[in-house]
Amino acid sequence: MGISSADLLKGLLNPRVKVGHEFIVKGQTVEQVYYAVAALAKATYDRMFKWLVSRINSSLYTALPRQYFIGVLDIAGFEIFEPVIRRLKEGEGKLLHSRQFHSYTRYRILNPSAIPEDSFVDSRKAVEKLLFSLDIDRTQYKFGHTKVFFKAGLLGHLEDMRDVRLSQILTIVQAMARGKLMRMQRDKMMLQRDAVTVIQFNLRAFFSVRTWPWMMMFYKLKPLLKSAQVEKQLAALNDEFNKLKEAYDRSELKRREAEEQHMVLVEEKKDLALQLQAEQENLSDAEERCNQLIQTKISMESKLKETQERLEDEEEVTLTMTSKKRQLEEEVMSLKRDVDDLEMTLAKVEKERHGAENKVR
């Protein structure tokens, strides 16, 4: 093939793919490599046979009339390559038209009974039965593996036959439609005729009995009968109205009760929200007092430490400072008492803070 085996392996295993304006190297799986090899083999096979058919066509070319063709079996199926498949010289060997077997349904209308509908029939056999049942010279067409080939003019003849058959079917359909419309018009006219007869009979009867005393009494009593019926209908409507009104009153009472309950729940919600806010404020106050006491304790402890250090320094300096030392000790004792008091106060505040937190929870 004129290429390096290393380049071929590289192209199959790690092909270059264009992404945007750049090329990247893509890794292939084993299955993808198999597909690539199969596609490459198919393309090579296809090009080789196309070249072979072209050489055969060029070697067999002649200006004399011809009717031959070449059939080539491809790995993907039956493909037909005619040596002269688009343009031929005028004469006996004119262009051969072809049709796939599965397109026979277009001409099935010429003889529908030739192909049974209740069983499966192969496309090739169906086309054979259809063409054999028609009045056509069998030398004007030839069957291939997947196509049937017609000589020039035969395909047009089939189209003409199809057009004639379609025109016949359309004529029959139009005749049946016109017949249906005319029968409907006739039924309508007969119904109108019967209606006219009944109306005429009733009019004659009316004119013959309209002066009878009993008929005149009936004319006077008929409106009264209608008024009695109207009163019954009115009473029924009143009963229905009363029932609907009672149902409406019950629903209105339930709605009011629901609204009152809703208002109570809203008030309870507001009270709980206010109580929660108050508890949160108390908690924040207790936390603030606790923080202040802690700061005071820290300050007092620092003062105590400073006093003790200063006391130790004074004891080392001189023994003459005993009186001053006693004063400082008394000050220290006082500060300790203050610290104890602060610790007790802090413990009490801590206890109050824990109690407030528990209450909030």
Automatic annotation (TrEMBL):
Residue stretches in coiled coil: 227-359
GO MF, one annotated term: microfilament motor activity
Chain ranges of the Myosin motor domain: 1-82, 106-163
Record keywords: Actin-binding, Coiled coil, Motor protein, Muscle protein, Myosin, Thick filament
Domain of life: Eukaryota
A single cellular component GO annotation: myosin II complex
Family, as annotated: Belongs to the TRAFAC class myosin-kinesin ATPase superfamily. Myosin family.
Protein name: Myosin motor domain-containing protein
Organism: Perca flavescens
